[in-house]
Amino acid sequence: MEAFIDMKKLILVTSPPACGKTFISKQVAKALPNCVYLDKDTMIQFSSMLRSQRRSEMMSILTIFALSLQRKMQSSSLSG
Q1: SS3 43
Q2: In whole angstroms, how far apart are CA 80 and each of 4, 60, 62, 72, 74?
Q3: For 15, which of 19, 39, 55, 65 could close a Cys bridge (C-beta 3.0–4.6 Å)?
Q4: Are 32 and 73 in contact (CB under 8 A)?
């Protein structure tokens, strides 16, 4: 079971509109260690930046994302 928990995973949540996907996904991201919530709009923005080669803007966003993930991981290790 520990090996499964340590594996890298992608959890994709889909359902019809207004079913609570965002709420559930954010709660799952909070509950699981080393887990981040990414919405489709963010992914579309990343993809368009890659295509348009706005690399400096993309790097700024990725840096902010990495710092927020690092803070989340530190706070989860301190509380657990």
Answers
A1: helix
A2: 19, 30, 27, 12, 10
A3: 19
A4: no
CA 48/CA 37 separation, integer angstroms: 19
Q: Which amino acid is at 24?
A: I
Amino acid at 44: I
* Full pLDDT tens readout for the chain, 80 residues: 566 666 677 788 888 889 998 899 888 888 887 787 888 877 777 777 777 766 677 777 778 877 887 777 777 666 55
Burial class of residue 21, CB neighbours in 10 A (0-12, 13-18, 19+) = middle
In the block, tokens 């909070």 appear at 30
Q: Are 38 and 29 in contact (CB under 8 A)?
A: no
